[in-house]
Structure formats: C-alpha cells, structure tokens
User: Fold these one by one.
Assistant:
Number 1:
Amino acid sequence: MARKNIKDNSNDAVQPSHTIDVSASTVVEKDTNIVEPEIEVTEELQEHADVQAQSNGFNQAALEATIAELRAALEKANQREEATVAELRSALEKAHQREESTVAELRAGLEKAHKREYELQENVYQLKSELYEQKSLVQKLDQEIVQANLKIKNELEQAKKTALELAEANGKLIEEIQGLKKDKQEKPTPQAIVPKKQITVPKKSIPIIEKLPPEKPGEPAKTSSPMWLLD
C-alpha cells in the first residue's frame, strides 16, 4: 500500500514539469503539495518496518524454539536408538552365547553317540564271533552224535548176533544134556564113556547184559527157551 502511494505521488509530481505556461505561484503551490505526501510515506514505511521487525523477531523466536524442539526430539531419538542398539547387541550376545552352549552340548552328545555306536559295533562283532563258534561246535557235536549213533547201532547189531549165536549154542547143549540123561535112564548098564563134542564159541566182544528182574510167582519160567536173549 505504501509503494502504491509513493507511485501515485511521483506521478503527480511529474505532471507539472510537462506544462510550459505555468506561473511561479502555481509551482510553489505544487511544491508545497508534494512535501506533505513524502512525510506520510516515511511514517508509513517506518511503521511497516517496525511491524516487519516485530514479525521477524517473532518468527526468529518461533524458529529458534522449533529448532530447539527438533534438537531435543533428535537427541531423544538418538538416545532411544542407542538404547535399542544396546538392547539388540545384548540380546544378540546372549543368543550367540546360547548358540555356542547349544553347539557344545550337541557336539558332546554327538561324540557320546559315536562312542556308544562304536561300542555296540564291537559287541555285535563279538557276539557274531561267539555265535559262529557255537554253530561250528554244534555242527561238530552233531557229527559226533551221528557217528556215535552209528557205532552204537553197529555194536548193538553185533551184540544181537552174538546173543543169537550163544542162544543157539545154549539150546544145543541143553538138548544134548537132556538126550544124555534120557539115554542114561533107559540104559543103566555101564557103557564106555563117549567123549563130549567140544563146541567152540567165537571170541567176540560180548556186551554186558543187564540183570533181569526177579520172576514173580505164578509167571512161567523164561528158561524154557534159549531165545529169550533175543528179546
């Protein structure tokens, strides 16, 4: 507004200079009219400058207050950030320590597991060796049992054969003895002694015959036939 007034006044001051036929009195009047607006413009400019200065001072104070608030907020943010970083570092260190402890425990457990596995493998190998030895021993014993059974069977057959021969020889002897007794009873006169025929029995291994149980009364005698040895 002050600039507009100055412009209008300057236009008014220039217009008299273009007129040629102007009296001195008219010039003086015009000059006196020009001085008064200049004084008013100066006062308005001073007021405007004062208002601008006050406004600038207020803006400067507000700006400084805003800067102070921003600095305080920034410091608080930095402090919170530093505290957060410290907490994160502490948590990271604790997690790292727990991780190292867990890794150490896992390594120890793994070593124990490997050691136990090695011991179990040794035990399995030893058990397999013992089992193989037992199987070999069982096979050997089976072979010995088979051979012993064959030997016992052969000896039993040989014993039966020998017992049969002895029974036959015993039967012949009994028949001859009974015949001699009968002849002696029929012929009481003395006669020449006839030499008995000697019976040769082959020498063989005769098995030991178990003692027969005593006969019960009322049972027929088993000596009536020499074939009882074959039973």
Note: Confidence is low (pLDDT under 50) at residues 1-37, 217-224.
Number 2:
Amino acid sequence: MIDNYLLEELVAFSEHKTLAAAAKYLNVTQPTITRGMQKIENELQVTLFNRQKNRITLTDVGKVAAIEAKKVLA
C-alpha cells in the first residue's frame, strides 16, 4: 500500500511542475522527492515520470495517477 505522504509528493510535483518547487512546497529536500517518486513507481510497477537530461515530467499514466492521488487525499 502506498503511503499518503508519497501521494502528497506526487500531487505536489504535478501541481508545481519541478522537483525543487514540490520540495519547497512540502518543506523537504529535493532528494526526498526523488526517492519518493522512485518508490511510487516501484510499488505501482509503472513509469509515472519521463526523465530527460535536465527535466522530469509526468507520463500520461503519471497524470492520471496524480489526479487519482488528489481524490484519495481529499
């Protein structure tokens, strides 16, 4: 089962668009967000994020997961 805090990290990333902004919003470090993202992907066994050289974005599945995570947290 995925921890609610990991869902909060996913939602924060989807709303703030960068790791740094999501980390700042949640008052944690950027590596904390990165580890959380990896943990969510490992638990769900799907790719939620497109990782490019200097940019990370949500995949289509990641966008749906963020919407559902927001519903769970509401």
Note: Strands lie at 49-52, 55-58.
